[in-house]
């Protein structure tokens, strides 16, 4: 992650001492990262931890080495683009002087999405693990809000990450990419699979849970 020089001192607060400038460049992790860089690093670690948790704790499907490599490469690319977007945004000193609104909103979206996605999938896994529910579709817990609420949560935290890193324009591009992909590919595929497997039961789920991806929106 590129090192971003500290912003010029604010006239109203006087010039910064060399010690204050040094403190702005050194974080508690000892990686010579600024606070904003440390935040983005922590979000990258959180995203990786979420994926590892999914593989080890919630996924019931085996993943081949090639598929795992593709997923890892894709996530590396998205995170790298976030770093690039941050570097471009930080060229403007006013962006880096203090955390703007997009950082606070982005972090909030990231936290909500990164928690909702695994919680929803654990709820569904627990339902499926109960022998009494064999052959039944799941529409409880967070899945009562949207039939693919996990995909919606993924889009939410990806958008939050992008918003904190690069601002609203980059976040809008990221959100549009994932929303289009899920709405045109993943969700229709899942809906078709569930319709064939569960039949009338799935039609009842669709009546109970009218939203596909994002509660109260779509």
Automatic annotation (TrEMBL):
Gene3D superfamilies: 1.20.120.1630. It holds the Pfam family DUF1295. Keywords: Membrane, Transmembrane, Transmembrane helix. InterPro entries: UstE-like. It comes from the Eukaryota. The chain crosses the membrane at residues 39-57, 69-92, 98-116, 160-179. One of its GO terms (cellular component) is membrane. The keyword Transmembrane helix applies. PANTHER family: 3-OXO-5-ALPHA-STEROID 4-DEHYDROGENASE, 3-OXO-5-ALPHA-STEROID 4-DEHYDROGENASE (DUF1295). This is Steroid 5-alpha reductase C-terminal domain-containing protein. It comes from Endocarpon pusillum.
């Amino acid at each position: 992650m590129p090192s971003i020089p500290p912003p010029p001192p604010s006239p109203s607060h006087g010039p910064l001492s060399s010690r204050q400038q040094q403190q702005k460049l050194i974080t508690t992790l000892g990686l010579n990262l600024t606070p904003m860089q440390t935040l983005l690093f922590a979000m990258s670690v959180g995203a990786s931890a979420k994926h590892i948790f999914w593989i080890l704790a919630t996924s019931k499907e085996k993943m081949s080495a090639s598929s795992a490599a593709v997923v890892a490469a894709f996530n590396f690319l998205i995170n790298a683009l976030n770093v690039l977007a941050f570097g471009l945004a930080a060229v403007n000193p006013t962006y880096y002087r203090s955390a703007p609104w997009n950082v606070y909103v982005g972090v909030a979206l990231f936290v909500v999405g990164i928690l909702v996605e695994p919680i929803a999938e654990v709820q569904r896994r627990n339902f499926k693990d109960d022998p009494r529910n064999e052959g039944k579709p799941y529409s409880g817990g967070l899945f009562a809000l949207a039939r693919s609420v996990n995909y919606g949560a993924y889009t939410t935290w990806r958008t939050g990450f992008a918003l904190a890193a690069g601002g609203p324009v980059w976040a809008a591009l990221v959100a549009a990419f994932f929303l289009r992909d899920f709405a045109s590919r993943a969700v229709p595929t899942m809906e078709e699979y569930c319709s064939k497997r569960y039949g009338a039961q799935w039609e009842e789920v669709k009546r109970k849970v009218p939203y596909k991806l994002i509660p109260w929106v779509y």
